[in-house]
């Protein structure tokens, strides 16, 4: 996709902000477990697949290098902001600004786990998608990238965040929660986000084609 430098910077800034927003929301929602059909999971399973959708569209429209720039610029700010937000709203309730005066090891561990899982999962997603994006079947690349990226991201995150955690429930159930979390993410990604990827891609390409025709 041909873009002027100003449009490219604007697109990258919007993507960076979107990624940070989803990470903050997911780190908050992962602290809220619930049961689905008798299996333990968290609300974070429903929010995080948005990042893979954004990453795959970035690779398709702007290229692999642009997607890597987004990931690199997101990681540290997301770590800091998600830690602060999760401390203030730990386990779904506002704890007050005084909580920031003391290091919260439980939330810090979640934030560090998110940092590692996000980096590994997103860079792997980019590699898989970039290798497959030239296939004539448009749905193969986003499907394969989401399957692999979500798998790695989910189990890296839950193992780092909750293995022998101070939270007894999460420490005892993190493997089950991670497995159910992955299944939910996979179902959401394949049934919703892959079709949404196709719809958004076509809409963006038509919009760009219209603008190019208007300026020609």
TrEMBL record:
Membrane topology: Multi-pass membrane protein
Localization (cell): Cell inner membrane
InterPro entries assigned to the protein according to its UniProt record, in alphabetical order: YhhQ
Membrane-spanning segments: 12-30, 42-62, 74-94, 106-126, 138-162, 182-205
Keywords associated with the record: Cell inner membrane, Cell membrane, Membrane, Transmembrane, Transmembrane helix, Transport
Keyword Phosphoprotein in annotation: no
GO MF entries: transmembrane transporter activity
GO annotations of cellular component type: plasma membrane
Top-level taxon in the UniProt lineage: Bacteria
General function of this protein: Involved in the import of queuosine (Q) precursors, required for Q precursor salvage.
Family recorded in the similarity comment: Belongs to the vitamin uptake transporter (VUT/ECF) (TC 2.A.88) family. Q precursor transporter subfamily.
Listed name of the protein: Probable queuosine precursor transporter
Organism: Halopseudomonas litoralis
């Amino acid at each position: 996709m041909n873009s002027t430098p100003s449009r490219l910077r604007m697109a990258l800034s919007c993507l960076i902000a979107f990624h940070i927003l989803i990470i903050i929301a997911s780190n908050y929602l992962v602290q809220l477990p619930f049961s689905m059909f008798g299996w333990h999971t968290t609300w974070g399973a429903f929010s995080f697949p948005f990042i893979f959708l954004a990453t795959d569209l970035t690779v398709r429209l702007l290229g692999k290098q642009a997607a890597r720039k987004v990931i690199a610029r997101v990681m540290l700010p997301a770590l800091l902001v998600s830690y602060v937000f999760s401390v203030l709203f730990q386990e779904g309730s506002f704890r007050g600004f005084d909580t920031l005066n003391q290091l919260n090891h439980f939330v810090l561990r979640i934030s560090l786990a998110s940092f590692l899982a996000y980096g590994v999962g997103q860079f792997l997603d980019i590699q898989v998608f970039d290798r497959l994006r030239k296939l004539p079947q448009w749905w193969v690349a986003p499907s394969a990238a989401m399957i692999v990226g979500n798998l790695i991201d989910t189990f890296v995150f839950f193992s780092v965040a909750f293995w022998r955690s101070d939270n007894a429930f999460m420490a005892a159930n993190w493997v089950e929660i991670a497995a159910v979390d992955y299944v939910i993410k996979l179902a959401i990604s394949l049934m919703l986000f892959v079709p949404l990827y196709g719809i958004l891609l076509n809409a963006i390409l038509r919009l760009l084609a219209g603008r190019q025709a208007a300026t020609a």
